Every structure is written in structure tokens, then in C-alpha cells.
Amino acid sequence: MREMNHERWTGGDQPSGQAGHDGADEAASGRNSARSGAVFAALDLGTNNCRMLVARANAGDFHVLDSFSRVTRLGEGLSRTGALSIDAMDRTVDALKRCAEKLQRRHVTVSRHVATEACRRAANCEEFLDRAKRESGIELEIISANEEATLALKGCIGLLDHAKPHALLFDIGGGSTEVLYVKVPGDGSLSVIDCISLPMGVVTVAEDCGGGDLCERTYKEVADRAGRLLEPFEHKHGLRELIDAGHMQMIGTSGTVTTLGGLALNLPRYDRTAVDGMTLDFGALLNKSHALCKMSLHQRAAEPCIGWQRADLVLAGCAILEAICQAWPVGTLRVADRGLREGLLMDMIHPASLRVQSVGAAI
């Protein structure tokens, strides 16, 4: 498996997908580009979605110029066969071609294109990476689960309450679920204490259970399994004691959490500006999850914040989310409609402003 944890900078007039300078020159080039008004792009290829943001630096943040999101289901069938299917690769390469067109049209000069769990697990990932580069011009790098979680944290820094000294951040993905335990000293810096990656995501769980129309019994079995996988992390760190003392906060970044946020607000259509940063009460959140479990697939698809693209996946995510809430009863969680792409952009545009220190996790 190909795994690269360095940043790839595309410099000057090079077409997207070709490597720029190496080492210190590469980093310096990125910093200078930020000052001179460079255009940045972050592409996140997950098990279920292909998403990209194009942005310029804006003070201590960034201004989005363009975006792309498409459900490609790259990991469809992966849990059964151990490989990426031809159809899934076809859909994904087509999406990458559209991304490449946007990169060229927006004159992107600095970019990073990462792939996560589906490519980490697939036996034929090298074949797919080679095909993606050959047909779209985009060179993907497979990042570790730890780096994926840490980048998501960097994307969510603006949602942290620095008055709370500890935080749990989770990301329920298509192929896996990552949970980060973070110390928040209160001085603007962060220390990543540890990270756990569960081999359970909305796509893999839905497929393992014969489809996304989970009955209540299967829903409980999924939640129980996820809970058992979280137990060693709790035993290692004693997070419930911090929760009891009122020292813990929780942030959730995933389609599951943002969907539940939209449903909680009774939105006629999903609105990122209304959902991102909102607070969800555990009781209301779990009641909504159980209500969805009682619906048919068609009824869930009719919900304006779900639709057909998520109707067969949302219950799997809700079951994993319930396990997280039961393992660590913080009581409320902050909803983040941001994450890996935003973390990639912040890492490229404002690396000096992100004081994230790795302590226990191998990041």
C-alpha cells in the first residue's frame, strides 16, 4: 500500500498532479505563495464521497472560491470483496476528472489530494491510484487514519471551547470512524493525546447488514459492536471521569451528524450555515435516530435533509453515533459541517497558526 504523509505542493504553471519542489524549498514555496495570493485546493476522496474546496488565503482564514461534492461510493462492495469494483472506480475517476477541470479553470497553484479508508483497505488500490493519475491527472496520496483525524481537528478548531480543557472529536466516515482525544490548554494550542479508528463506517456497516434498511434489532447490534470497540480507549484514558467533572466537550463531523442537525432544525432543505456550529442535545439526537429507525427507506428518503443518496446509510451512522454517545455521555455535541478539506486548506495556507501537538498518537 502506498502511504505518503508529506504535503505535495504544485508550483507555478505545472499541471495538477505533478509534484513541485521537495523539502524545505517546498514548504517555503507554499508560504510565499500564500502571501502572493495563490489559489489553494484540497481534495478529499473518501469511501462514499469525492469532495474538493478551492480557496484563497483571507487574513487568518480562507475564502472559498469553488467547491465540488459527488457521491461516488468508491468503497461499494469493498467489505465483501476486499477490492474496489470497476464500476466504483469508473464513477470516482469521472468525479476526479471534474475536479481536475476545476483545478485548471481556477488556476490552482497549491494543492493536496488525499484518499482515506477505501484506498487504505483495497487490495487493488495501486491499480486505482495509477488509473486516477493517468486519466484525470490527479495524483492521490493515501493518508493514515491518525492523520485524517488530525486534519479534521484542524478544520474544526474554530468550534472548540477553550474554556473546556478536554475534547473528543469524532468523524463517522464511509469506511471507518475516527475518534480523537484532545487536550485544550486554553492558550490557543492543542495537544492530541490519542486516536482510535474503528473499522466501521456508514457504507461498510450498511453493506455488512444487507443494506441500509436496518431493523431495530440490527441497529442495536451495530451500536453494541461499536461500543465494544470503544471500550479499550475509555479504559486507557478514563474519559468518563473528565465528563463527570464537566471538563469534556464533544464535536462531531460527519454526514450523519450534519443530517441530524438539519432534521432537528426542521429545515425544508439542508443549509450548511444553519447547521455548522449548532449544538445538539444527546436526548433529542437519539430520539431522532430511533424515529428514523422506525421509518421505511422511502420515508427516510422523503426527509428533505436525507434524500435517496443518504437514505440507505443514515441508520448505520446513527447506530455508530449512539455508541459514541453512550460511551461518553457528555450530554451535548457541537455539529461541524467542516473537517478534512478545511484542515488541509488551513495546513497549507496558515501552517504557523495551527498549534497542534501530537503527544500520544502516532501522527
Basic shape: globular
* Second-tier CATH architecture of the largest domain: 2-Layer Sandwich
Structural category? alpha/beta
Mean pLDDT, all residues: 86
Number of helices: 16
Task: Name the CATH superfamily classification of the largest domain.
Answer: Exopolyphosphatase. Domain 2
Low-confidence runs of at least 5 consecutive residues: 1-30
Task: Walk across the major sheet and give the strand order.
Answer: 10-11-9-6-7-8-12
Residues in helix, %: 40-55%
Order of helices and strands: HEEEHHEHHEHEEEHHHEHHEHHHHEHE
Q: Domains counted in the coordinates: how many?
A: 2
End-to-end distance, in Å?
18 Å
Main β-sheet, in a few words?
A: 7 strands, mixed
CATH class of the largest domain: Alpha Beta
Extended strand count: 12
The CATH topology of the largest domain turns out to be: Nucleotidyltransferase, domain 5
Question: How would you characterize the overall build of this protein?
Answer:
With 363 residues, the chain is of the alpha/beta class. It folds into 2 domains: 121 residues, 2-Layer Sandwich (Nucleotidyltransferase, domain 5); 183 residues, Exopolyphosphatase. Domain 2 (Nucleotidyltransferase, domain 5), CATH 3.30.420. The chain is 44% helix and 20% strand. Strands 10-11-9-6-7-8-12 form a 7-stranded mixed beta sheet, sandwiched between helices. Strands 3-2-1-4-5 form a 5-stranded mixed beta sheet. Strand 7 and strand 8 form a beta hairpin. Helix 3 runs parallel beside helix 5, helix 6 crosses helix 16 and helix 10 packs across helix 12. The chain is globular. The protein starts with 22 loop residues before the first helix and ends in a 5-residue tail after the last strand.
